[in-house]
From TrEMBL:
Amino-acid positions noted as binding 3-amino-2-oxopropyl phosphate in the UniProt annotation, renumbered to this chain: 12, 23, 200, 221-222
Site note Transition state stabilizer, residues: 156
The entry's keywords: Cytoplasm, Pyridoxine biosynthesis, Transferase
Entry similarity comment: Belongs to the PNP synthase family.
Subunit structure comment from the entry: Homooctamer; tetramer of dimers.
EC class: transferase
Name of this protein: Pyridoxine 5'-phosphate synthase
């Protein structure tokens, strides 16, 4: 797929591994899903190697690095173990995310402002190794400024609160979240950061985010894997790609 698109789609294949791990076997294979995603219009693949290995495994990362022809976005917590894995593989991109064992999914953005010194030292070797470092944060000026100061090249704005408000019918809250995401996308761009967005996006919520001119990439996973049960992975991703392109106009 072309890397020159104004808005890229990264497909997160974590929950293909979740289904596989439910039976403890080798099927379905996340690498096969990644290759189908590329066929369907994905510009990159995202995979989150969690501390507890609840879905993606170390072997999955090995396979993705060896088998992908599109970039891998390696999501990880800011721990020495994950840093060592990233430095061994040197993926195209590393996205630093908050992680708690008890959470079902990533519940919020990384607290960069409070851990600025530690995170600056943490990402420096990753940047030196040639990885593009992204920080997953809330749409908050303080966090964006801190991400900029520590040397991140990219921020990924957490769209979960916007998507949750839409799903629950809280439309005033949804519109407030959308306005904040719009404003902070523009602010981050003005600082020279590349802006990505993701978490919880669906066919119903993607277009307003995709329309932000500063956003360069959306990362979408759980919804697409769920939708694939009903329409197949390639058609599910192709429809998301169509909506993104339509929103970009």
């Amino acid at each position: 797929m072309s890397q020159t698109r104004s808005l890229r789609l990264g497909v997160n294949i974590d929950h293909v591994a979740t289904v596989r791990n439910a039976r403890g076997g080798a099927y379905p294979d996340p690498l096969r899903a990644a290759k189908l995603a590329e066929e369907a219009g994905a510009d990159g693949i995202t995979a989150h190697l969690r501390e507890d290995r609840r879905h993606i495994s170390d072997a999955d990362i090995d396979g993705l690095m060896a088998g992908l022809t599109v970039p891998l976005n390696f999501e990880m917590a800011a721990t020495p173990e994950m840093q060592a894995i990233a430095l061994r593989h040197k993926p195209h991109a590393v996205c630093i995310v908050p992680e708690k064992r008890e959470e079902r999914t990533t519940e919020g953005g990384l607290e960069v402002a409070r851990e600025e010194n530690r995170l600056a030292h943490f990402i420096a070797p990753l940047r030196e190794a040639g990885c593009r470092v992204s920080i997953f944060i809330a749409a908050d000026a303080k966090q964006i400024e801190a991400a900029h100061r520590i040397g991140a090249e990219v921020i990924e704005l957490h769209t979960g609160a916007y998507c949750d408000a839409h799903a629950e019918g809280h439309f005033e809250a949804r519109d407030r979240e959308l306005a904040s995401l719009r404003e902070m996308s523009a602010y981050a761009h003005s600082l020279g950061l590349e802006v990505h967005a993701g978490h919880g996006l669906t066919y119903d919520t993607v277009k307003p985010i995709a329309a932000f001119p500063e956003v360069r990439e959306l990362n979408i996973g759980h919804f697409l894997i769920g939708e694939a049960i009903f329409r197949g992975l390639v058609p599910a991703i192709a429809e998301m790609r169509r909506l993104m392109d339509e929103a970009r106009g």
